[in-house]
Protein backbone atom coordinates (compact mmCIF):
# COMPACT_ATOMS: atom_id res chain seq x y z
CA UNK A 1 0.00 0.00 0.00
CA UNK A 2 1.41 3.47 -0.86
CA UNK A 3 1.72 6.32 1.71
CA UNK A 4 -0.91 8.19 -0.27
CA UNK A 5 -3.44 5.38 0.22
CA UNK A 6 -2.70 5.04 3.95
CA UNK A 7 -3.40 8.72 4.61
CA UNK A 8 -6.81 8.71 2.99
CA UNK A 9 -9.64 8.31 5.52
CA UNK A 10 -13.15 7.04 4.74
CA UNK A 11 -15.66 9.84 4.19
CA UNK A 12 -17.44 10.60 7.48
CA UNK A 13 -20.82 10.16 5.79
CA UNK A 14 -20.16 6.75 4.18
CA UNK A 15 -22.93 5.10 6.21
CA UNK A 16 -25.64 7.50 5.03
CA UNK A 17 -24.25 9.26 2.00
CA UNK A 18 -27.59 10.77 0.94
CA UNK A 19 -28.31 12.04 4.47
CA UNK A 20 -31.55 10.03 4.69
CA UNK A 21 -31.56 10.20 8.48
CA UNK A 22 -31.57 14.04 8.28
CA UNK A 23 -35.09 13.75 6.84
CA UNK A 24 -36.42 12.28 10.09
CA UNK A 25 -38.29 14.48 12.55
CA UNK A 26 -37.05 14.98 16.11
CA UNK A 27 -39.73 12.60 17.34
CA UNK A 28 -38.78 9.93 14.80
CA UNK A 29 -35.10 10.24 15.77
CA UNK A 30 -36.03 9.82 19.42
CA UNK A 31 -38.07 6.69 18.74
CA UNK A 32 -35.24 5.30 16.62
CA UNK A 33 -32.74 5.98 19.42
CA UNK A 34 -34.94 4.22 21.98
CA UNK A 35 -35.22 1.19 19.69
CA UNK A 36 -31.50 1.28 18.88
CA UNK A 37 -30.43 1.55 22.54
CA UNK A 38 -32.72 -1.30 23.58
CA UNK A 39 -31.76 -3.53 20.66
CA UNK A 40 -28.03 -3.01 20.99
CA UNK A 41 -27.89 -3.12 24.80
CA UNK A 42 -30.54 -5.73 25.62
CA UNK A 43 -31.18 -7.88 22.54
CA UNK A 44 -27.76 -8.12 20.95
CA UNK A 45 -26.03 -9.62 24.04
CA UNK A 46 -28.63 -12.45 24.20
CA UNK A 47 -29.01 -13.27 20.53
CA UNK A 48 -26.11 -15.67 19.99
CA UNK A 49 -27.17 -18.08 22.73
CA UNK A 50 -30.86 -17.67 21.89
CA UNK A 51 -30.26 -18.60 18.25
CA UNK A 52 -27.93 -21.46 19.16
CA UNK A 53 -30.33 -22.99 21.67
CA UNK A 54 -33.57 -22.05 19.90
CA UNK A 55 -34.86 -20.01 22.83
CA UNK A 56 -37.34 -17.17 22.95
CA UNK A 57 -37.19 -15.23 26.18
CA UNK A 58 -40.78 -14.13 26.90
CA UNK A 59 -39.61 -11.17 28.97
CA UNK A 60 -38.61 -9.52 25.68
CA UNK A 61 -42.26 -8.80 24.91
CA UNK A 62 -42.67 -7.05 28.28
CA UNK A 63 -39.49 -5.07 27.72
CA UNK A 64 -40.67 -3.95 24.27
CA UNK A 65 -44.03 -3.01 25.77
CA UNK A 66 -42.52 -0.96 28.58
CA UNK A 67 -40.53 1.10 26.06
CA UNK A 68 -43.58 1.72 23.86
CA UNK A 69 -42.10 -0.33 21.02
CA UNK A 70 -45.24 -2.43 20.41
CA UNK A 71 -48.01 -1.07 18.13
CA UNK A 72 -46.85 2.55 18.52
CA UNK A 73 -49.40 3.85 15.98
CA UNK A 74 -52.44 2.85 18.07
CA UNK A 75 -54.57 5.45 19.86
CA UNK A 76 -53.59 6.50 23.40
CA UNK A 77 -57.10 5.43 24.45
CA UNK A 78 -55.87 1.82 24.32
CA UNK A 79 -52.34 2.47 25.56
CA UNK A 80 -50.64 3.31 22.23
CA UNK A 81 -48.61 6.42 21.43
CA UNK A 82 -50.31 7.57 18.19
CA UNK A 83 -46.97 7.71 16.41
CA UNK A 84 -46.71 7.58 12.63
CA UNK A 85 -45.87 4.67 10.33
CA UNK A 86 -42.30 5.91 9.91
CA UNK A 87 -41.74 5.44 13.65
CA UNK A 88 -43.09 1.90 13.42
CA UNK A 89 -40.74 1.24 10.50
CA UNK A 90 -37.74 2.60 12.39
CA UNK A 91 -38.49 0.28 15.31
CA UNK A 92 -38.60 -2.72 12.95
CA UNK A 93 -35.34 -1.54 11.35
CA UNK A 94 -33.46 -1.26 14.65
CA UNK A 95 -34.75 -4.57 16.04
CA UNK A 96 -34.01 -6.49 12.84
CA UNK A 97 -30.44 -5.12 12.81
CA UNK A 98 -30.08 -7.56 15.71
CA UNK A 99 -32.33 -10.40 14.59
CA UNK A 100 -35.29 -11.01 12.27
CA UNK A 101 -36.80 -13.39 14.86
CA UNK A 102 -37.10 -10.61 17.43
CA UNK A 103 -38.58 -8.27 14.81
CA UNK A 104 -41.03 -11.02 13.89
CA UNK A 105 -42.33 -11.18 17.44
CA UNK A 106 -42.84 -7.41 17.46
CA UNK A 107 -44.48 -7.41 14.00
CA UNK A 108 -46.97 -10.15 14.81
CA UNK A 109 -47.99 -8.57 18.09
CA UNK A 110 -48.32 -5.09 16.55
CA UNK A 111 -49.59 -5.60 13.00
CA UNK A 112 -51.25 -8.99 13.02
CA UNK A 113 -52.85 -9.10 16.46
CA UNK A 114 -53.37 -5.59 17.84
CA UNK A 115 -54.12 -4.08 14.43
CA UNK A 116 -57.06 -6.40 13.53
CA UNK A 117 -58.60 -6.00 16.99
CA UNK A 118 -58.20 -2.22 16.72
CA UNK A 119 -59.58 -2.00 13.18
CA UNK A 120 -62.22 -4.73 13.22
CA UNK A 121 -62.96 -5.46 16.88
CA UNK A 122 -65.89 -4.46 19.13
CA UNK A 123 -65.35 -1.84 21.83
CA UNK A 124 -65.36 -4.64 24.43
CA UNK A 125 -62.68 -6.61 22.54
CA UNK A 126 -60.52 -3.51 22.14
CA UNK A 127 -60.62 -2.54 25.78
CA UNK A 128 -60.22 -6.12 27.00
CA UNK A 129 -57.18 -7.02 24.89
CA UNK A 130 -55.33 -4.06 23.37
CA UNK A 131 -53.93 -2.39 26.52
CA UNK A 132 -52.54 -5.71 27.80
CA UNK A 133 -51.12 -6.65 24.39
CA UNK A 134 -49.44 -3.25 24.04
CA UNK A 135 -47.83 -3.62 27.47
CA UNK A 136 -46.63 -7.09 26.49
CA UNK A 137 -48.61 -8.70 29.33
CA UNK A 138 -50.48 -10.81 26.77
CA UNK A 139 -48.94 -12.43 23.69
CA UNK A 140 -50.87 -12.94 20.48
CA UNK A 141 -50.54 -14.87 17.23
CA UNK A 142 -52.16 -14.76 13.79
CA UNK A 143 -53.42 -17.96 12.14
CA UNK A 144 -53.92 -17.74 8.40
CA UNK A 145 -51.59 -20.36 6.87
CA UNK A 146 -52.67 -24.01 6.85
CA UNK A 147 -50.78 -27.21 6.04
CA UNK A 148 -52.31 -27.32 2.54
CA UNK A 149 -52.87 -23.62 1.91
CA UNK A 150 -50.02 -21.12 2.24
CA UNK A 151 -49.77 -18.75 -0.73
CA UNK A 152 -53.46 -19.30 -1.48
CA UNK A 153 -55.32 -18.67 1.79
CA UNK A 154 -58.62 -18.24 -0.11
CA UNK A 155 -58.79 -22.07 -0.31
CA UNK A 156 -58.42 -22.53 3.45
CA UNK A 157 -60.19 -25.46 5.09
CA UNK A 158 -60.66 -24.15 8.63
CA UNK A 159 -64.38 -23.80 9.27
CA UNK A 160 -66.53 -21.79 11.65
CA UNK A 161 -69.93 -23.47 12.02
CA UNK A 162 -72.72 -21.38 13.54
CA UNK A 163 -74.12 -22.98 16.67
CA UNK A 164 -76.40 -21.82 19.45
CA UNK A 165 -74.88 -18.64 21.03
CA UNK A 166 -71.60 -19.01 19.23
CA UNK A 167 -69.35 -20.75 16.74
CA UNK A 168 -67.67 -24.14 16.47
CA UNK A 169 -64.23 -23.85 14.88
CA UNK A 170 -62.35 -26.78 13.36
CA UNK A 171 -59.10 -26.88 11.44
CA UNK A 172 -55.32 -26.65 11.65
CA UNK A 173 -53.07 -23.66 11.16
CA UNK A 174 -49.35 -24.12 10.74
CA UNK A 175 -46.12 -22.11 10.75
CA UNK A 176 -47.66 -19.68 13.20
CA UNK A 177 -45.24 -17.27 14.90
CA UNK A 178 -45.76 -17.09 18.69
CA UNK A 179 -48.40 -19.88 18.65
CA UNK A 180 -46.83 -22.01 21.41
CA UNK A 181 -46.62 -19.06 23.81
CA UNK A 182 -49.70 -17.12 22.73
CA UNK A 183 -52.45 -16.13 25.13
CA UNK A 184 -54.75 -15.25 22.25
CA UNK A 185 -54.93 -16.25 18.58
CA UNK A 186 -56.54 -14.33 15.73
CA UNK A 187 -57.98 -17.15 13.62
CA UNK A 188 -59.31 -16.79 10.09
CA UNK A 189 -61.96 -19.35 9.14
CA UNK A 190 -64.80 -19.90 6.68
CA UNK A 191 -68.43 -19.90 7.73
CA UNK A 192 -71.16 -22.25 6.43
CA UNK A 193 -71.82 -19.65 3.72
CA UNK A 194 -68.16 -19.85 2.65
CA UNK A 195 -67.45 -16.36 3.95
CA UNK A 196 -64.10 -15.62 5.60
CA UNK A 197 -64.34 -14.24 9.15
CA UNK A 198 -61.86 -13.45 11.90
CA UNK A 199 -62.16 -14.76 15.49
CA UNK A 200 -60.35 -14.14 18.76
CA UNK A 201 -59.49 -17.38 20.53
CA UNK A 202 -58.42 -16.97 24.13
CA UNK A 203 -56.34 -19.61 25.90
CA UNK A 204 -58.18 -18.89 29.17
CA UNK A 205 -61.62 -19.39 27.67
CA UNK A 206 -61.30 -21.73 24.70
CA UNK A 207 -60.02 -25.20 24.03
CA UNK A 208 -57.29 -25.33 21.36
CA UNK A 209 -53.85 -26.92 21.14
CA UNK A 210 -50.56 -25.40 19.99
CA UNK A 211 -47.66 -27.69 19.15
CA UNK A 212 -44.20 -26.15 18.79
CA UNK A 213 -42.32 -26.65 15.52
CA UNK A 214 -38.78 -27.58 16.56
CA UNK A 215 -35.59 -27.71 14.54
CA UNK A 216 -35.91 -24.63 12.36
CA UNK A 217 -32.63 -23.48 10.81
CA UNK A 218 -34.05 -19.95 10.56
CA UNK A 219 -35.75 -17.55 13.00
CA UNK A 220 -34.58 -19.68 15.88
CA UNK A 221 -35.09 -16.83 18.38
CA UNK A 222 -38.83 -16.78 17.74
CA UNK A 223 -41.26 -19.59 18.55
CA UNK A 224 -43.30 -21.10 15.74
CA UNK A 225 -46.06 -23.65 15.99
CA UNK A 226 -49.30 -25.19 14.86
CA UNK A 227 -52.80 -24.43 16.10
CA UNK A 228 -55.29 -27.31 16.26
CA UNK A 229 -58.97 -26.62 16.72
CA UNK A 230 -61.43 -29.49 16.96
CA UNK A 231 -64.96 -28.18 17.35
CA UNK A 232 -63.62 -25.41 19.56
CA UNK A 233 -66.63 -23.54 20.91
CA UNK A 234 -66.40 -19.78 21.13
CA UNK A 235 -69.22 -17.42 22.05
CA UNK A 236 -70.73 -14.89 19.64
CA UNK A 237 -68.76 -12.02 21.15
CA UNK A 238 -65.46 -13.56 19.95
CA UNK A 239 -66.03 -12.87 16.25
CA UNK A 240 -64.38 -9.72 14.84
CA UNK A 241 -67.61 -7.92 13.97
CA UNK A 242 -66.34 -5.28 11.55
CA UNK A 243 -64.73 -7.18 8.69
CA UNK A 244 -65.83 -9.81 6.21
CA UNK A 245 -63.72 -11.53 3.54
CA UNK A 246 -60.06 -11.77 2.62
CA UNK A 247 -59.46 -8.05 2.90
CA UNK A 248 -59.48 -8.63 6.70
CA UNK A 249 -56.26 -10.65 6.91
CA UNK A 250 -54.73 -8.93 3.86
CA UNK A 251 -55.06 -5.46 5.36
CA UNK A 252 -53.17 -6.72 8.45
CA UNK A 253 -50.52 -8.11 6.10
CA UNK A 254 -50.13 -4.67 4.52
CA UNK A 255 -48.95 -3.32 7.88
CA UNK A 256 -46.66 -6.25 8.60
CA UNK A 257 -45.15 -6.36 5.10
CA UNK A 258 -44.37 -2.65 5.39
CA UNK A 259 -42.52 -3.34 8.67
CA UNK A 260 -40.56 -6.13 6.98
CA UNK A 261 -39.49 -3.74 4.22
CA UNK A 262 -37.85 -1.60 6.92
CA UNK A 263 -36.58 -4.50 9.01
CA UNK A 264 -34.70 -6.17 6.18
CA UNK A 265 -32.76 -2.94 5.58
CA UNK A 266 -31.61 -3.15 9.21
CA UNK A 267 -30.47 -6.72 8.74
CA UNK A 268 -28.70 -5.88 5.46
CA UNK A 269 -27.01 -2.87 7.05
CA UNK A 270 -25.63 -5.00 9.87
CA UNK A 271 -24.13 -7.38 7.29
CA UNK A 272 -22.69 -4.55 5.18
CA UNK A 273 -21.03 -2.80 8.14
CA UNK A 274 -19.63 -6.08 9.47
CA UNK A 275 -18.26 -7.08 6.06
CA UNK A 276 -16.63 -3.66 5.58
CA UNK A 277 -15.03 -3.76 9.02
CA UNK A 278 -13.78 -7.29 8.43
CA UNK A 279 -12.42 -6.44 4.97
CA UNK A 280 -10.46 -3.50 6.40
CA UNK A 281 -8.89 -5.63 9.13
CA UNK A 282 -8.33 -8.93 7.37
CA UNK A 283 -4.98 -9.13 5.54
CA UNK A 284 -4.28 -11.57 2.74
CA UNK A 285 -1.40 -11.22 0.26
CA UNK A 286 0.09 -8.62 2.67
CA UNK A 287 -2.73 -6.11 2.41
CA UNK A 288 -6.28 -5.67 3.65
CA UNK A 289 -8.77 -7.62 1.53
CA UNK A 290 -10.63 -4.27 1.27
CA UNK A 291 -7.82 -3.18 -1.08
CA UNK A 292 -9.13 -5.51 -3.77
CA UNK A 293 -11.39 -4.04 -6.42
CA UNK A 294 -13.62 -7.12 -6.31
CA UNK A 295 -14.29 -6.64 -2.59
CA UNK A 296 -14.80 -2.89 -2.98
CA UNK A 297 -17.36 -3.53 -5.72
CA UNK A 298 -19.39 -5.73 -3.34
CA UNK A 299 -19.23 -3.08 -0.60
CA UNK A 300 -20.34 -0.38 -3.04
CA UNK A 301 -23.20 -2.57 -4.30
CA UNK A 302 -24.31 -3.05 -0.67
CA UNK A 303 -24.16 0.69 -0.03
CA UNK A 304 -26.13 1.45 -3.19
CA UNK A 305 -28.87 -1.13 -2.61
CA UNK A 306 -29.28 -0.22 1.06
CA UNK A 307 -29.39 3.51 0.35
CA UNK A 308 -32.03 3.08 -2.37
CA UNK A 309 -34.06 0.56 -0.34
CA UNK A 310 -34.04 2.79 2.74
CA UNK A 311 -34.95 5.93 0.82
CA UNK A 312 -37.83 4.13 -0.87
CA UNK A 313 -39.23 2.61 2.30
CA UNK A 314 -39.08 6.01 4.01
CA UNK A 315 -41.06 7.44 1.08
CA UNK A 316 -43.54 4.55 1.44
CA UNK A 317 -43.94 5.31 5.15
CA UNK A 318 -44.48 9.00 4.47
CA UNK A 319 -47.16 8.15 1.87
CA UNK A 320 -48.85 5.70 4.26
CA UNK A 321 -49.01 8.50 6.82
CA UNK A 322 -50.82 10.71 4.28
CA UNK A 323 -53.25 8.43 2.48
CA UNK A 324 -54.52 4.95 1.71
CA UNK A 325 -51.73 3.54 -0.37
CA UNK A 326 -52.05 0.97 -3.16
CA UNK A 327 -51.05 -2.34 -1.48
CA UNK A 328 -48.98 -3.14 -4.59
CA UNK A 329 -46.54 -0.43 -3.45
CA UNK A 330 -46.05 -2.38 -0.22
CA UNK A 331 -45.46 -5.57 -2.24
CA UNK A 332 -42.84 -3.69 -4.27
CA UNK A 333 -40.89 -2.76 -1.15
CA UNK A 334 -41.35 -6.08 0.69
CA UNK A 335 -40.14 -7.99 -2.36
CA UNK A 336 -37.27 -5.66 -3.19
CA UNK A 337 -35.89 -5.18 0.30
CA UNK A 338 -36.06 -8.91 1.16
CA UNK A 339 -34.23 -9.78 -2.04
CA UNK A 340 -31.48 -7.18 -1.65
CA UNK A 341 -31.02 -8.10 2.02
CA UNK A 342 -30.64 -11.78 1.13
CA UNK A 343 -28.13 -10.94 -1.58
CA UNK A 344 -26.15 -8.64 0.74
CA UNK A 345 -26.15 -11.24 3.53
CA UNK A 346 -24.92 -13.96 1.16
CA UNK A 347 -22.11 -11.80 -0.27
CA UNK A 348 -21.13 -10.46 3.19
CA UNK A 349 -20.90 -14.05 4.39
CA UNK A 350 -18.50 -14.70 1.54
CA UNK A 351 -16.33 -11.68 2.44
CA UNK A 352 -15.80 -13.19 5.88
CA UNK A 353 -14.54 -16.43 4.33
CA UNK A 354 -14.63 -19.35 6.77
CA UNK A 355 -15.44 -17.04 9.68
CA UNK A 356 -18.58 -16.09 7.78
CA UNK A 357 -20.28 -19.33 8.74
CA UNK A 358 -19.69 -18.87 12.47
CA UNK A 359 -22.48 -17.73 14.79
CA UNK A 360 -19.80 -15.55 16.43
CA UNK A 361 -19.84 -13.21 13.44
CA UNK A 362 -23.68 -13.10 13.16
CA UNK A 363 -23.92 -12.85 9.37
CA UNK A 364 -24.84 -16.48 8.79
CA UNK A 365 -27.68 -16.02 11.31
CA UNK A 366 -28.99 -13.02 9.38
CA UNK A 367 -28.71 -14.97 6.14
CA UNK A 368 -30.62 -17.96 7.50
CA UNK A 369 -33.28 -15.67 9.00
CA UNK A 370 -33.76 -13.78 5.74
CA UNK A 371 -34.66 -17.03 3.98
CA UNK A 372 -37.84 -17.07 6.08
CA UNK A 373 -38.45 -13.35 5.78
CA UNK A 374 -38.36 -13.70 1.99
CA UNK A 375 -40.99 -16.48 2.26
CA UNK A 376 -43.45 -15.37 4.90
CA UNK A 377 -45.98 -12.57 4.48
CA UNK A 378 -46.15 -13.56 0.81
CA UNK A 379 -43.25 -15.18 -1.02
CA UNK A 380 -41.12 -13.27 -3.52
CA UNK A 381 -43.03 -15.03 -6.33
CA UNK A 382 -46.40 -14.00 -4.91
CA UNK A 383 -45.34 -10.35 -4.65
CA UNK A 384 -44.04 -10.56 -8.21
CA UNK A 385 -47.48 -11.72 -9.33
CA UNK A 386 -49.27 -9.07 -7.26
CA UNK A 387 -47.12 -6.43 -9.01
CA UNK A 388 -47.57 -8.11 -12.40
CA UNK A 389 -51.34 -8.01 -11.94
CA UNK A 390 -51.13 -4.41 -10.82
CA UNK A 391 -49.44 -3.21 -14.01
CA UNK A 392 -51.07 -5.53 -16.58
CA UNK A 393 -54.49 -6.14 -15.11
CA UNK A 394 -53.91 -9.84 -15.75
CA UNK A 395 -54.10 -12.27 -12.83
CA UNK A 396 -51.33 -14.86 -13.23
CA UNK A 397 -51.71 -16.80 -9.95
CA UNK A 398 -53.62 -19.70 -11.46
P1 LIG B 1 -57.85 -11.17 -4.29
O1 LIG B 1 -58.98 -11.52 -5.24
O2 LIG B 1 -56.65 -10.51 -4.79
O3 LIG B 1 -58.48 -10.32 -3.10
C1 LIG B 1 -59.55 -10.81 -2.30
C2 LIG B 1 -60.08 -9.62 -1.52
O4 LIG B 1 -59.06 -9.10 -0.69
C3 LIG B 1 -58.76 -7.73 -1.07
N1 LIG B 1 -57.31 -7.58 -1.01
C4 LIG B 1 -56.70 -6.74 -0.17
N2 LIG B 1 -57.19 -5.88 0.73
C5 LIG B 1 -56.30 -5.16 1.44
N3 LIG B 1 -54.97 -5.28 1.27
C6 LIG B 1 -54.44 -6.13 0.37
N4 LIG B 1 -53.12 -6.26 0.24
C7 LIG B 1 -55.32 -6.91 -0.40
N5 LIG B 1 -55.16 -7.85 -1.36
C8 LIG B 1 -56.38 -8.24 -1.73
C9 LIG B 1 -59.30 -7.59 -2.47
O5 LIG B 1 -59.60 -6.25 -2.75
C10 LIG B 1 -60.52 -8.46 -2.40
O6 LIG B 1 -61.52 -7.75 -1.68
P2 LIG B 1 -63.08 -7.88 -2.08
O7 LIG B 1 -63.77 -6.97 -1.15
O8 LIG B 1 -63.17 -7.48 -3.51
O9 LIG B 1 -63.40 -9.34 -1.88
O10 LIG B 1 -57.50 -12.53 -3.56
P3 LIG B 1 -56.73 -13.77 -4.07
O11 LIG B 1 -57.25 -14.96 -3.37
O12 LIG B 1 -56.69 -13.76 -5.56
O13 LIG B 1 -55.28 -13.42 -3.47
C11 LIG B 1 -54.21 -13.52 -4.19
C12 LIG B 1 -52.89 -13.35 -3.40
C13 LIG B 1 -51.92 -14.38 -3.92
C14 LIG B 1 -52.38 -11.97 -3.67
C15 LIG B 1 -53.05 -13.55 -1.90
O14 LIG B 1 -53.64 -14.78 -1.63
C16 LIG B 1 -51.76 -13.43 -1.12
O15 LIG B 1 -51.29 -12.35 -0.76
N6 LIG B 1 -51.13 -14.60 -0.75
C17 LIG B 1 -49.98 -14.63 0.12
C18 LIG B 1 -50.38 -15.19 1.45
C19 LIG B 1 -49.63 -14.57 2.57
O16 LIG B 1 -49.02 -13.53 2.47
N7 LIG B 1 -49.71 -15.19 3.75
C20 LIG B 1 -49.10 -14.64 4.90
C21 LIG B 1 -49.50 -15.41 6.13
S1 LIG B 1 -49.19 -14.53 7.63
C22 LIG B 1 -47.54 -14.56 7.81
O17 LIG B 1 -46.77 -15.00 7.01
C23 LIG B 1 -47.04 -13.96 9.05
S2 LIG B 1 -45.36 -14.08 9.28
C24 LIG B 1 -45.30 -13.25 10.69
C25 LIG B 1 -43.96 -12.89 11.20
O18 LIG B 1 -43.38 -13.73 11.94
O19 LIG B 1 -43.50 -11.72 10.95
P1 LIG C 1 -46.43 -22.54 -0.86
O1 LIG C 1 -47.58 -21.63 -0.98
O2 LIG C 1 -46.68 -23.99 -0.94
O3 LIG C 1 -45.34 -22.12 -1.94
C1 LIG C 1 -44.21 -22.94 -2.24
C2 LIG C 1 -43.45 -22.30 -3.40
O4 LIG C 1 -44.31 -22.22 -4.54
C3 LIG C 1 -43.00 -20.87 -3.09
O5 LIG C 1 -41.75 -20.64 -3.69
C4 LIG C 1 -44.05 -20.03 -3.80
O6 LIG C 1 -43.56 -18.75 -4.19
C5 LIG C 1 -44.35 -20.89 -5.01
N1 LIG C 1 -45.68 -20.60 -5.56
C6 LIG C 1 -46.90 -20.84 -4.99
N2 LIG C 1 -47.88 -20.43 -5.80
C7 LIG C 1 -47.28 -19.90 -6.90
C8 LIG C 1 -47.76 -19.28 -8.09
N3 LIG C 1 -49.06 -19.12 -8.32
N4 LIG C 1 -46.86 -18.87 -9.00
C9 LIG C 1 -45.52 -19.02 -8.77
N5 LIG C 1 -45.01 -19.58 -7.67
C10 LIG C 1 -45.89 -20.01 -6.75
N6 LIG C 1 -48.31 -17.81 8.52
C11 LIG C 1 -49.30 -17.31 9.31
O7 LIG C 1 -50.48 -17.36 8.98
N7 LIG C 1 -48.98 -16.72 10.51
C12 LIG C 1 -47.72 -16.63 10.97
O8 LIG C 1 -47.47 -16.08 12.07
C13 LIG C 1 -46.67 -17.20 10.17
N8 LIG C 1 -45.38 -17.20 10.63
C14 LIG C 1 -44.42 -17.89 9.92
C15 LIG C 1 -43.16 -18.09 10.51
C16 LIG C 1 -42.20 -18.84 9.83
C17 LIG C 1 -40.87 -19.11 10.49
C18 LIG C 1 -42.48 -19.36 8.54
C19 LIG C 1 -41.45 -20.15 7.78
C20 LIG C 1 -43.72 -19.16 7.97
C21 LIG C 1 -44.72 -18.45 8.66
N9 LIG C 1 -46.02 -18.33 8.14
C22 LIG C 1 -47.02 -17.78 8.93
C23 LIG C 1 -46.39 -19.01 6.91
C24 LIG C 1 -45.98 -18.25 5.66
O9 LIG C 1 -46.77 -17.13 5.45
C25 LIG C 1 -46.05 -19.22 4.48
O10 LIG C 1 -44.99 -20.13 4.63
C26 LIG C 1 -45.97 -18.51 3.14
O11 LIG C 1 -47.11 -17.71 2.91
C27 LIG C 1 -45.82 -19.50 1.96
O12 LIG C 1 -46.73 -20.54 2.05
P2 LIG C 1 -46.23 -22.08 1.95
O13 LIG C 1 -45.12 -22.24 2.92
O14 LIG C 1 -47.43 -22.94 2.10
O15 LIG C 1 -45.63 -22.21 0.51
Task: Describe the protein in words.
There is one protein chain. The protein has 398 residues and is α/β, with parallel strands linked by helices. 52% of the residues lie in helices and 13% in strands. The chain contains 11 helices and 8 strands. The strands form 2 sheets. Strands 1, 2, 3, 4, 5 and 6 form a 6-stranded mixed sheet that branches. Helix 4 (85-98) packs antiparallel against helix 5 (100-120). The longest helix is centred in the middle third of the chain and has 35 residues, at 247-281. The radius of gyration is 22 Å and the shape is globular. The termini are far apart. The structure holds 3-thiaglutaryl-CoA (TGC) and flavin-adenine dinucleotide. Flavin-adenine dinucleotide binds at residues 108, 141-145, 150-151, 175-177, 219, 224, 372, 375-377, 379, 381-382, 385, 397.
Structure summary:
This protein has 398 residues and is of the alpha/beta class. The protein is built from 11 helices and 8 strands. Strand 4 and strand 5 form a beta hairpin.
